[in-house]
Amino acid sequence: MKHLIVYAHPHTDSLNHAILNTALETLEAQGHEVVVRDLYALGFQPVLSAADTASMRAGQTPQDIATEQQFVAEAEAITFIYPIWWAGLPAIMKGYIDRVFAYGFAYASGEAGIEKLLTGKKGLIINTHGTPSEIYDQIGMTASIKMTSDIGIFDFVGIEVIDHLLFGSIGYLETKAYQSMLEQVKETVSTKF
């Protein structure tokens, strides 16, 4: 299976980076073809500009967007790995969605309403956050995050969400807890794809 991992975290010594490595190693060990797009390492420009939209309307997608769209188009499965900051996506990941999942590429409007142009792809989202998971569950934040990303992004363009892992209390746990999280990533990736 052709698998795209879109990764957003500025630190290579982070848990998110360990999650990335675990997912990548697990997928490759199972024979998947994997492409990783590390948005910080790429220096991805996240701001959707007026020039971007004008170019796309004219049928001339800017090269950096076209490159990322090609990776998305070729992928059978897409995994997003990023931390939750201020109850949402890091700016660089939000900008990736804004620029790459563009009208005419990821979705369009038709007689029946919204056309989901990425239908047929599978999606996995893996997030970390500092707040304990129990608190996020109690205040409705877990459900809100899933609604925004699973339904508002992936489902909106036709990507079938096969799982969404959220790991809380990051920065406040013992080593064993982080190892357990990585084992859950490994198990999820190996059983869902």
From TrEMBL:
Does Oxidoreductase count among this protein's keywords? Answer: yes
Q: Which residues form the Flavodoxin-like fold domain?
A: 1-187
Regions crossing the membrane: none
Going by the entry's taxonomy, the superkingdom of the source organism is recorded as Bacteria
What are the record keywords, sorted? Oxidoreductase
Q: Please give the family membership noted in the entry.
A: Belongs to the NAD(P)H dehydrogenase (quinone) family.
PANTHER family to which the protein is assigned, alphabetical:
NAD P H OXIDOREDUCTASE-RELATED (PTHR10204), NAD(P)H DEHYDROGENASE [QUINONE] 1 ISOFORM 1 (PTHR10204:SF34)
Could you tell me what this protein is called?
Answer: NAD(P)H dehydrogenase (Quinone)
To which species is this protein native?
Paenibacillus pabuli
